[in-house]
Amino acid sequence: MKGRPSCRMPAMSAEAADLRLEQATGWARRVLGEDLRVEPISADASFRRYFRVHRESGAEPLVLMDAPPEREDSRPFLDIAARLRKAGLHAPEILHFNLKQGFGIIEDLGDTLYRQVIDARSAPALFPHLFEVLARMAREVSAQGLPPYDETLLQRELELFPDWYLDRHKKRPFSTAERVCWMALCRALIDSARRQPQVFVHRDFHSCNLMFRDGKAPGIIDFQDAVRGPLSYDFISLIWDRYIHWPRAQLEQWMSDMHARLEPGFGLEDWIRYCDLMGLQRNLKVVGIFARLRYRDHRQGYIEMVPMFYRYLLDVLPRYPEFSEFQSILEDDTCAP
Description:
The chain is an alpha+beta fold. The chain is built from twelve helices and nine strands.
C-alpha cells in the first residue's frame, strides 16, 4: 500500500456521483457508437470508480473508468500503462480516454484476483509467472522521469507507524530514548533501500492488484503511483502478503529464485538482507496506514489485519542483532496489537 498524503478532499455527493455516471455513460455510447449497459465493478482508495460495459452488439465487455479530473490526475495512469505494455506486460489496454472529462474506456481483465487463487498448493505453479513479471518490470520497464523513491518519501512512510499506530491507536508515543532508537532504525532501512539498484517500482504489487487470467499473462492494475526505487520493493510486497503467511524457509527459497532471475550483481546473502530490510520498511508503513484508515478515513476492516504485519516485523527483527533494541520496544505489551 502507498503512504498517501494526509490532505483529503470531501467525498463526492450521491447526486454528483449519479450525474458523473450519467455523463460517463453518455460519453461511452458516443465513442463506442452503440447502445450499452453499465454495472458497478469497484471503487478504489482514490476517487476513481469502475463500471463494466455490456455492449448491444454482444462484443466482449469493456471497463468504463470515471476519474473526476478535479480530484484525480489520470496522466500517470496513462503513462504507466503505456510503459508496462511497451515492455510486453499486461496492463489494461486504453481504448479511449478523455482527460478533460476524466472518462476512459479500457480493457476488461476480468474479476479473478490472484488473492482468490493463491494458496499453499497453488503457489508453486503460480508464483514463477509473477516472478517473471517482476523481473521484466525491473529490466525492461522504463523508470525515466518517474518520481524517486527517495529518502524523504521513505522517511515519510516510516513515520506513519509512530504517528498513527503508536500515538493514535495505542496511545503510546516514543520516549526520548526510543525516538533515538527509532531514527537509527530508519537510517539503516533507508540506507539499505537507497543502496539497491533503482528501477521501476509498481509500489503496490500484491495479490489484490494482480488479475488471474487462466492460461494468460497476469493482469496488472493499480499502477499509477509507480516510482523509481529499490529493486526488492515489489518482490517483498508480493511475498509478505496480507492474506497468507508463508514459512521463512519458503520465503528464503523465493528470495533465492528471484535473485537468480534478476542477476543483480551482488550475492544472495546481500539480496536476502535487502529484502528483509525493505520488508521492515514496508510493513512498518502498512501498520501505520491501517491505523490511519481506521482513525482518519473511518474504514474499519484494515486495523484487524495489523497483527499479521506486526508478526512479520517480529519474524525479521531477531535476524539482525543491530535492531534488538527496537525489537524489545515492539515486544512491549503497550505496543503489541
